[in-house]
């Protein structure tokens, strides 16, 4: 479920901003570039997984489809909800790096009832990259995305639910959420929210 920025929350954030000078602008920027979820009951706390260990954990336990330069040693994992327009914007930004990066797009489901079926349809597609292109174009056009059967195989449903649990284990509260290593320094990278192409390249160490 998308977490709204209510008036009361805005007032509290404003008070914090006066104390820190920057907090409000950071929170608002995040709200404008990501779709948030309510904390899941029983989810692991944010500190349960260190940033250094996150990449290996996601590589071992995540489920997604490949896009871009699949032979590249530079692998980037992206958690996304199929109903998230900010994820669609990040998908568009990533197109500029498809010849350099091996992306793994990993669907989660928390926004609405279409999230799980559409994520399952993408995972099961014979050509998930082309299906994703059409789907995200539909999302950006506010047409709801791809048609998807509500009947989802248990195995695929379990994979998407596992991705969602993994996102929570990382302490993430919104999508899109990137887990990667900087191509220049090999330092761990975790980033929430959509970015324009130049910022995405810089975040991944490809500028």
Q: What's the layout of helices and strands?
A:
Elements (H helix, E strand, L loop, with lengths): L6 H14 L2 H11 L1 E2 L14 H11 L3 E4 L6 E6 L4 H10 L7 E6 L7 H10 L3 H13 L13 H16 L4 E2 L1 E5 L6 E5 L4 H7 L4
Parallel strand pairs: 3-4
Antiparallel strand pairs: 1-5, 2-4, 3-6, 6-7
Helix pairs in contact: 1-2, 4-6
Notable traits:
two-stranded antiparallel ribbon; 8 helices; 7 strands; 207 residues; alpha+beta; globular; five-stranded mixed sheet
The helix content, as a percent range, equals 40-55%
Q: Structural class, please?
A: alpha+beta
- What's the alpha carbon Rg, rounded to whole Å? 17 Å
Q: How far do the termini sit from each other? A: 35 Å
Mean pLDDT: 84
How is the main sheet built? Answer: 5 strands, mixed
Overall shape: it is globular
Describe the structure concisely for a colleague.
It contains eight helices and seven strands.
What does this structure look like?
The protein is globular. The strands form two sheets. It has a five-stranded mixed β-sheet with strand order 2-4-3-6-7. A two-stranded antiparallel ribbon has the order 1-5. The relative contact order is 0.19. The chain is an alpha+beta fold and 207 residues long. The chain has eight helices and seven strands. Helices cover 44% and strands 14% of the residues. The model is unreliable at 1-31 and 39-47 (pLDDT under 50).
């Amino acid at each position: 479920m998308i977490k709204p920025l209510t008036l009361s929350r805005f007032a509290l954030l404003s008070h914090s901003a006066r104390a820190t000078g920057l907090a409000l602008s950071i929170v608002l920027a995040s709200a404008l570039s990501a779709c948030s979820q309510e904390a899941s009951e029983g989810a692991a706390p944010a500190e349960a997984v260190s940033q250094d260990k996150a990449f290996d954990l996601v590589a071992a336990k995540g489920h997604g489809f490949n896009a871009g330069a699949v032979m590249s040693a530079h692998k980037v994992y992206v958690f996304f909800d199929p109903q998230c327009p900010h994820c669609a914007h990040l998908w568009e930004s990533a197109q500029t790096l498809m010849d350099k990066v091996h992306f793994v797009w990993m669907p989660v489901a928390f926004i609405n009832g279409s999230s799980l079926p559409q994520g399952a349809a993408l995972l099961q597609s014979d050509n998930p990259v082309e299906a994703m292109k059409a789907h995200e174009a539909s999302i950006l056009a506010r047409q709801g995305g791809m048609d998807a059967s509500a009947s989802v195989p248990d195995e695929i449903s379990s994979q998407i639910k596992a991705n969602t649990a993994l996102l929570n284990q990382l302490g993430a509260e919104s999508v899109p959420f990137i887990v990667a290593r900087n191509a220049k320094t090999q330092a761990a990278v975790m980033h929430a929210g959509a970015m324009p192409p130049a910022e995405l390249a810089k975040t991944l160490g490809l500028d």
